[in-house]
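Attaching the record inline, Q. Sequence:
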Amino acid sequence: MKKRILSAAISALLLGVAASSAQAEDDVNAWRLFVADHDKPVINVIDALDGDKLATFNVKGPASLSRTKSGAVVFAIQGSANVVSAISSGIAFHDHGDHADIDIDDAKLLKVELDGKKPGHFVERQGKVAQWFDGENSAQLLTEHAVLAGKNDAAKVSVVAAHHGVAVPYDGYAVVSIPNPEDATKRPIGARVVDLKGNKVGEDAACPGLHGSAGSGNIYALSCATGLLLITQNDDAPVIKHLPYAKSLPEGSTSTLIGGKGMQYFIGNYGPDRLVLIDPTEADSFRLIQLPTRRVHFAVDPVRPKFAYVFTEDGKLNQIDVLKGQITQSVKVTEPYSMDGHWNDPRPRIAVADSKIFVTDPLKSKIHVLDAVAFKEISEIAVAGQPFNIVAVGGSGKVHGGGHAHDEHGHSHEHAHNHEHTH
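Structure, as predicted:
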């Protein structure tokens, strides 16, 4: 009898060990939305998988949001309040070659703040951040690693004169826009490579009317009235090459640029009701896409790389097949949002997380949730106020041992180790 009891106890113990080791190798899928209000200094954090609100952060002004490539940090750029705040997303990945580990913690507002007049363009590359300030004669360069540790390691790089421009961070260098020497309030006239002491490196690159920038793969692009500047870096200083607009394009230029994820391409505006697809490696680099009405916002799909999306003022979300260079599906999502009026009026913005597309509807205080594969609306999330700018952070990874207990949506019941390094 005693032997049977002992045997049962050992079996139960072994089953428990097996269960805990299986749990220790769990694949976890976690996605979060960061949503800024149009008028209020408020940022809501929402679980993208079930729509639950996880946190609300009060900042100093209405914010535009930018995330780092790793997704570990979301920056809230508050132009009217002259400050940039940093939020730890609470989701961090650690690359191990054949798999990635995921650490999940609560999102939190970090102590690091960047102060300066009229913060504008934010650029992050390979863990390095460049924050531009339209009202300052210098840009601030810092690292994601330091921000996560609650430290501000920002160095300032001279940009000659205050202007509406951009800085792109590199190892030991930055590419900065060159202000118009006759009137710095006009658009920049070119781009320059500088070292971190502000010394000019090489020849300036002409880029009249510089406005708009994005990265895709190993190329960072700046858009100009004459074409694109393509920036690459191998082992030393960045190199800038000019890609002129194709002669087949109608007169125009792009001033808002986004970069493909998973495939190397760029997509930009080309007038109010057209987009241009740009493949920088092809001889015939430019393809024009006519939209049904004026565009409101566009975004690429980082999960399904061949798709991008554009929201148009008729209230429709349009799917673009980047390989075909055309709109392949459209679905009505909101009431019309006219592009007449102020450029910064509350209008929908797009984010993609997991198998879903999210479209903010600021005038109706909600976010529409679409199934990205079926391309139809499946639910909505109520958000007080005017949910406007939105970014998504997340992905899948393995959880190893150490008591990281998660439910099916990746909510952390015990704080996971918040490692400072991210892939």
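Residues 3 and 9 are 10 Å apart (CA to CA). Residues 2-24 form the longest helix (23 residues).

More tomorrow.
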